[in-house]
Amino acid sequence: MGREILRAPAVLLAAMAGLGLGACSNTATIHYKQPASCYIFDSDPTGSPHTTTSAGNGMFEFFDITSIENKASGAKDFNFMPNKLFANSTVGGNTVNNAPGASFSFLIQTAQPKLIPKGTTVNGLGRIVINVAADDPQTEKTAKTNLLYKSAQGESVLLVRDPPDNPPQFLDPCTPTNVNALN
């Protein structure tokens, strides 16, 4: 009786370890950088009438999806969906999930859904814009915001900021010209 009780936790731990190792073998790695942020997006600085879009109580944060590696040992085809990317922020002590929503796709090169075949790396997937809510937008000017991905069942996604320590450039305002010129 005593041995059966001791053996059950050992079997459970072994099963959990096996699941953990299996989940890691199918990991797609999304590399990204955060080149800029701004309060205002000015779609046509010389236009008349002059129209701008405000980030409200937050900041427009631009992210470049530089590459997706799908070369893990147990890789399966990965269906990249930009609308599954999001960033968390804290507003009033509460965590807020900020999804891509500011649609400037007609003005900047935005990331599109893409199938990444197993065993491959795809580079230069485009840009996404997320309006990140904040208690004080001033604190978001050069904040390094981490991207997250809403993985589907059976997916494992690792997001890597390249380079990890570079804060975004604050643009005032963002325009199609200065955003598309970012590296």
Report what the structure shows.
The chain has one domain (2-180). The protein contains two helices and twelve strands, in the order αββββββββββββα. It has helices at 2-24, 176-180; strands spanning 27-38, 40-42, 52-54, 58-70, 78-80, 85-91, 94-98, 114-116, 120-133, 147-149, 156-161, 169-170. The strands form four sheets. Strands 1, 4, 9, 11 and 12 form a five-stranded mixed β-sheet that branches. The relative contact order is 0.26.
Mean pLDDT over the full residue set: 81
The main pleated sheet reads as:
5 strands, mixed
Q: Total number of β-strand segments?
A: 12
Spell the H/E element sequence: HEEEEEEEEEEEEH
When the domains are counted, the total is: 1
Q: Percent helix among the residues?
A: 10-25%
Strand portion, in percent? 35-45%
In short:
This protein has 183 residues and is an alpha+beta fold. It has helices spanning 2-24, 176-180, and strands spanning 27-38, 40-42, 52-54, 58-70, 78-80, 85-91, 94-98, 114-116, 120-133, 147-149, 156-161, 169-170. It has one domain (2-180).
